[in-house]
Amino acid sequence: VTGVQTCALPISYSVAKPGAAGARAKLARPVADKLFFAGEATAAGADGSFGAAMTAGGAYLAGQAAARALS
Known about the structure:
Layout lengths: L3 E5 L3 E5 L5 H7 L27 H15 L1
Antiparallel strand pairs: 1-2
């Protein structure tokens, strides 16, 4: 997905380039209802926005959401 990068400093996290915050929502959409991406870059806030990506907590929540979508 264009616009989402990972940053490999002592810690790792995803960042959306300026003007590319919508890339997170695109990455969070399943592909053919068979391939699901989950992780901090795909974690949406309580209001459904992807503006503020979370780290481990967001990855956990995104994984749960992807698992629920499978069932």
